[in-house]
Specification:
Blueprint lengths: L10 E2 L15 E10 L8 E5 L12 E10 L7 E6 L2 E7 L8 E8 L4 H4 L3 E7 L11 E10 L10 H12 L2
Antiparallel strand pairs: 1-2, 2-9, 3-8, 4-7, 4-9, 5-6, 5-8
Length: 173
Amino acid sequence: MLSFHAFPICVVSHYGFEKNSGASPPPSSYLLLQHDFSFTYGQPSVLTAYTPPPHCPSPSSAKIVLEWTATCKGRQFDRIFGVWIGGAEGLYSFTAEPSAAGIIWTVKKDVTRYSSLLSTNQTLAVYLGNLVDSTYIGVYHVNILREFDPFTDDDGNRSASESLRTQLQIAQR
C-alpha cells in the first residue's frame, strides 16, 4: 500500500529578515509531497492533488522552482525518478547512490514556464522505481517542494520593481 502526506500550506521563513531592513523576504516554500519509496519498482506513480496556495505570491510574477530532496541509507543503486504536474514532466532525473552511512541530496529545477499549470488545481504524480530486499535495503525518503521568489528573474537577479522598492525603503529611513 502506498502512503503519502500532502501539506497544502505555504511556509515563509523569516530568519534574518527584518521589516524595513531593505532586504527582501526569502522565497516561499510549499510542501507538495512527502513519501518513503521502498519497494516501488513496477508500481504505479504516487498521486496527490495539487492546489495552488491562496496566500502565496502569484505564480505569474514569480520565479518558481521545483525542489526534490531525498535521503537514503544502506545498499542501493541509483534509480530513475520523475515528477509530473497535470501530466507535464516537471522533473526527471536519477537518484544519488547511497552509502552505508547514508546520503542526502537536493535537485532544483526552474519550472516557471509551468506557471499556468501551477495556478490551477492539478494532479501531481511522482515515480521512483526502487527495489528493497535482503540485499538492497535503502529506502528513499523524499520531500518535494515548490519554491517561489516574487522578486527574482530567471537569471537570479532582483527585479527592477524590487530594486525600486528597496531604494524607497532605504530613502524613507
